[in-house]
Amino acid sequence: MKKTAHYSIGRPLQKWGETEKQAWLRVQKTKRSYEKDVLVNIEQLRADFDIQQYEELTYDSKTYPLMMLATKDPSDNKPTVLITGGVHGYETSGVHGAIHFLKTHGKEYQTYFQFLVAPCVSPWSYETINRWNPDTIDPNRSFYPDSPAAECSSLMQAVFSKTQSVLAHFDLHETTDSDEDEFRPARAARDGEVFEKQEIPDGFYLVADTSNYNPAFQKAMIDAVQKITHIAPSDAQGNIIDVPIEQPGVILYDKQKYKLCAGFCQPTYSTTTEVYPDSPNINDEICIKAQVTAVKAGLDFILAT
Question: Cβ distance 56 to 64 under 8 Å?
Fold first, then answer.
């Protein structure tokens, strides 16, 4: 791996204190609207889904209502499917993919499942196009009891208040060029570490859970998405983001160990989607369609099993 120049905030190999964290926060600016982009689109689904505010976050005197959509008439006879987007707020197609799935396919699949959908777990990060929350915490490493990230603790509480059993969890993400240009260098600086560049996978891939790996489930989604966009190849070492591939387009993480969103409710079926929006062969529409296709293919596999 190639070492690169140190991040602009902090001193090399020294962990950030409160001064550095505040310096980072001061340079973050609002770049898009959570209300216009997300809340308005959620409201359009009110006729078909129960829309609930499960928490309200306040950052720098601005409030962000956290919203969840749920099946209107829940039934103990139908298994629960959890869909989350925007755990990393900058990963745009995860947010809009969750909403678009409900718009285009939600009603038909409610025959078989009851849904809990949190389209934008981290709205401040959505507006500022960030991986972290304002406290320089990565929400997707913070899903555990007494989490310091309010985005995580409030989502876990909301889900567990409705069910203790989730059959399937689809956590919708992106891997972007900005991971290497901004977010991983910032993390290394925050943690007092040397940043070493990592190869960005060019294409769609999935992160399965080591504790409940179902190869056929993951393959069904890869097979469907490859009709929409290209699947990320492995690098020269047979890896994707430095993790060995288990099958084309699929790697494994221990999601409980790393406190990832897709592991907190320990579902029977679990996947984290990763779309590559910076490819010259893709656009926003294709990114969203890939997210929707993955969820739909995963549900079809479960129904056929």
Answer: yes
32 has a pLDDT exceeding 70: yes
- DSSP line for 88-121: STT-HHHHHHHHHHIIIIIHHHTTT-EEEEES-S
Type and span of the H or E element at 207: strand 205-209
* pLDDT tens for each residue of 165-180: 999 999 999 999 999 9
**Residue 109 Cα distances to 102, 187, 218, angstroms:** 9, 39, 19
Mean pLDDT, residues 226-255 taken together: 97
Q: What 3-state DSSP class applies to 271?
A: strand
Cα–Cα distance measured from residue 42 to residue 37, given in angstroms and rounded to the nearest whole number: 9
What are the beta bridge partners of residue 243?
240
- Phi then psi for residue 246, to 5 deg, are -95, -30
Q: What's the confidence (pLDDT) of residue 282?
A: 95
Domain ranges of the chain: 18-304
Run of H or E residues at 80 = strand 80-85
Output the pLDDT for position 1: 44
- pLDDT digit string (tens) for 81-127? 999 999 999 999 999 999 999 999 999 999 999 999 999 999 999 99
Q: What's domain 18-304's architecture?
A: 3-Layer(aba) Sandwich (3.40)
Q: Which amino acid appears at position 113 of this protein?
A: F
Question: At 88, phi and psi to the nearest 5?
Answer: -95, 110
